[in-house]
Amino acid sequence: MERRKLAILVNPPIYDTQYWARWSMPHGLLKIATWLRESNLYDLKLFDCLNPYGKESGVIESVTEFESFDAVRKQKKSVVVLGTNKEYVPDRFGYKLKPNEKWKYEFGCPIGTLENQLFELKEEIKYKEYEVIEFWVTSIMTYWWESTRDVIKLALEVFPQAKIRVGGIYPTLAPGHAGSKLGIEALVIKGDYVKLSDEHLMSQHLVVRNEIPGASNLALATDLYEEGERPPYTILTTSRGCPHICSYCASNILNDGTKVRNRDFEDVIREIKEKFVQGTRVFCFYEDNLLMKMKEFKRILKAVLTDKSLYGIKIYAPEGIEIGVALSDHKRFLLKLKSNRQILATLSVDTDLPPEQPGTEGIYENYKNQKSMQKRSFITLEEDLTQGSVEIIDKSNPEEYLKLQIGGEEVILRKVPKDNGRDEIVYENESDSSLGLYLVGVPEIVYLMKLAGFEKIYLPLETIKKETNARWNRSWNSNLHRFESLLAALEEVGFDTRRQNVNAFVMFGLPGEDLEEIYDTALYASERVGSVIPMLFTPVPSTQVFEQYQDYIISKGFDLQHLNGKLFPFFDMLKQDLINKHGECKMDISDYVRVESFMQRINTKVNGQSVNIYSDSRVSQTFRKVYSEYESLLSSMECDNDEQLLGEMEVAAAWQGE
Questions:
Q1: What is the DSSP secondary structure assignment for residue 432, as one 8-state letter?
Q2: pTM of the model
């Protein structure tokens, strides 16, 4: 069938000071591609300018190892002055940056190269006589909007009669900005109202905010990548939405509210199997709140676990899992050997209530009927992982206890009722164990994630200061007790927390913070997990924080590109806060640059593990000596020691061995 329309799908390059390319696949754009294809109206052409595996966007070296590869091409574009709206192109080659400056790069396939590709495409299709050519351009971060503008300008220079459709996070959160700044006279429209059959609508340039419902649950059209350029992973989105409204997060705006919606289970499993058959082994869950619909997610993991055709699958969730939500799951109890921590058997406390049927969750009558039933709970042996060495010798009263025999040794497990209904199991005769057995309870979701093939766990530690969590409406998620509890559970199921199996996000650059808080959080995280991932705070349009600091943003003359957290837009406010509290302070913005560098340095590996300042190594001893001699920033009215501290701590963290 000859189609009369051509859709050119573009994931633009970006302008930024740093860029981490892993997981950069434009999954929303690839869903749109599937939606357009299913309409039978379009031929499709994809230009993913941020593909690390692309001939024009990737680095020169060949890509052989997914785990170690997260780079795209880059070239210097301009110099930005941190904490300001100033940006310029140096007038000489070999320019040396000032302490308050960073290079701004063009990451990915350069605009100039894209121009050549578009002219080549124009030549290829000149005999096809398409009636309509449309550019579907995705635009992600709000501070990347400039490259979106430049791609649109280029598209219309090469194809003057083309129609532009811009979608993604940027036009959803800042539709007014997109409507006025992208250089086109466009209709700003919600995705619900985009109808491919509406000729009048489709004859206009469109700025599309929010999702297009018909595309939301479709698989990704990864077959559009050229041979040899297809990424070795795919992105899964099995749910949308988050019930919480954190003051700096825009999830409720992106998803039209706080309702959490799930994709059909069979649809998700079908997509996983199809991609696996096509050769994809790495699957990345990109969710607003992965564990909020716990039962549905566990159902997916159990399906993956029991399907032998999916052997070798690797799963990631780089957006992180909410600590408090993970800990709220009911427990799977692990019977283990103390000597090597091998799991011999797993148990749970089950009830005789009928399980909820798919699609009935939240329906009042179903809830009322279950609550009116008499609940009984009993101990269940879920798995014998010893190939027959675990034997049930007494299950006459599983509501009270269960007796096992392991290697000739009797194990008595007794149920302990709890007021919250989450009954526990205790190993009653553990002290008599000659085998050195012990029992530990972990959130079942953690156990299933390990079994299903999760390679890494990302945790939003953010800050150890509870006052800051409260200020940003995050008290529900994280505190140190919860963080430690989840780390212990992760270790019990087999994650090595010290070798980058477990990573922690640490946020800084927020109004109202202090450097001590940042250091304390980073050092604590470095001691407890394998990698510290700095999250530089960006005020996102439409969020509470953005509205709260509108006066400051306007007074600084900031546009959206100036609010990139890597440029420390709130530094002047942070410095003024310190002056107001402690008098004159000589802290400079370069100190914050060094904080960023410090976070990266503490991820330096020594013998395969991240720097642990509490160990007895020379690295750690030097680190502690420098830190102990530092006069607190907040106790020093002059702040004179900060630069020296940062320099010495960076040196200590960079040491590479004994």
A1: G
A2: 0.85
Q: Give the side-chain half-sphere CA count within 13 A for 111.
A: 18
Coil/strand/helix, residue 581: helix
- In 3D space, the residue among 184, 183, 191, 182 whose CA is nearest the CA of residue 209 turns out to be 191
| Helix (H) / strand (E) containing 370 | helix 364-372
Phi, psi of 197 (to 5 degrees): -85, -10
Of residues 5 and 240, which shows the higher confidence score? 5
Pairing of β 502-508 and β 457-462: parallel
Q: Are 489 and 607 in contact (CB under 8 A)?
A: no
Q: Are 449 and 492 in contact (CB under 8 A)?
A: no
Asked whether 152 and 182 are in contact (CB, 8 A), the reply is: yes
Q: How many CB atoms lie within 10 A of CB 354?
A: 10
Which of the pair, 486 or 370, is modelled with greater confidence?
486
Question: For residue 175, what are the CA distances in angstroms to 137, 153, 206, 208, 386?
Answer: 15, 18, 11, 8, 59
Question: How crowded is the C-beta side of 437, counted as CA atoms within 13 Å?
Answer: 28
Distance CA 319, CA 290 (A): 8
Q: What does the pLDDT read at residue 605?
A: 59
Segment 568-592 shows an average pLDDT of 84
The tens digit of pLDDT for each residue in 299-337 reads 999 999 999 999 999 999 998 998 989 999 999 999 999
- The CA distance from 150 to 262, in Å, is 36
> Is beta strand 314-316 parallel, antiparallel or unpaired with respect to 261-262?
unpaired
Phi-psi region of 505 (alpha: psi -120 to 50; beta: other; left: phi over 0): beta
- Tokens found for residue 127: 């005999």
Q: Please tell me the predicted confidence (pLDDT) of residue 526.
A: 85
CB 395 within 8 A of CB 402: yes
Mapped onto helix, strand or coil, the DSSP state of residue 146 is helix
Give the residue among 348, 229, 232 at the shortest CA–CA distance from 281.
232
The token pair at 167 is 């979608």
Q: How many CB atoms lie within 10 A of CB 481?
A: 9
**What type of residue is 331?**
K
Beta bridge partners of 208: 189
pLDDT higher than 80, residue 95 = yes
CA within 13 Å, CB half, 279: 6
CA dihedral angle for residue 576, residue 580, residue 581, residue 583, rounded to 10 degrees? 100
